[in-house]
Structure of Glycosyltransferase:
Amino acid sequence: MMDQRTPTNKYEIVVVDNCSTDSTKKVVDQFSAKGNVRYIFEPTLGLSYARNTGWRSARGKYVAYLDDDAIACPVWLDKILEAFETVTPRPGCVGGRVTPIWEASRPEWLSDWLLHGLTIIDWSDMPHILTNLSEEWLVGANIAFPVEILERVGGFTPNLDRAGNNLLSSGDVFLENQIKNMGYSCFYHPDITIGHHIFESRLSQSWFIRRYYWQGVSDAVIHLLQERPSMLKRLRFAYSQAKILLQSPGKLKTLILPTNNPERFTQKCFTLIILGHIYGVLRFVRPWQ
């Protein structure tokens, strides 16, 4: 962040410490002497809580998010401001490309589609409005909003995204859908680019199996938040999904058998999404409360 072409007096860096046990505060304090870096401690564990503390503490008109394992390109802030101030009507959120910084070799079983599970996106070389968020979306590691929009929508929902060791996700996409429902667009610009560190610990099949099962759980939470179905409707949904799985021996086979084939492992992960969705729909009571 310190090598941005945007003049330092035009932006601030807010570092939200969400219950870390390392030397985060000490490191941030060393940079605070530069004048535009602030440290804030958020005691409630959870990514959504940390992100909400960030925008509520920000002093600017816009707030842009960058994860602690990401590196912004030098024109990152310039391009974010350009999108907000030149695209008409003004978008409700903007974001862009996320490229991997591999800490180990990419496994042969890791398909391009499964890269999305590592928060890697590259939708096109052309800036454009995202019309279908189930096909193209922005990610929380590289996204920006007008503060007034976050105030109107209430920020990130605390029922989604990481909290401790769980792998809940999709709080970013849920917020994007809320913004679209308010009549604003979500805008993708490829030059709003960050590099995202891909830790070796995440390059195992066991991590992806867990990650995509929890994607299904996350989808279930969104399902419940959006539709608030009765328990009877939940049971009917779970039954219909389980029936589809039981009638698909190919999916069950890929779920059970080990494989290094990228297509088969991708199918295994997609089947785990269904299982996680079934579990989540039956498990959670009222996530909107």
Observations:
- The chain has a mean pLDDT of 93.
- The radius of gyration is 20 Å.
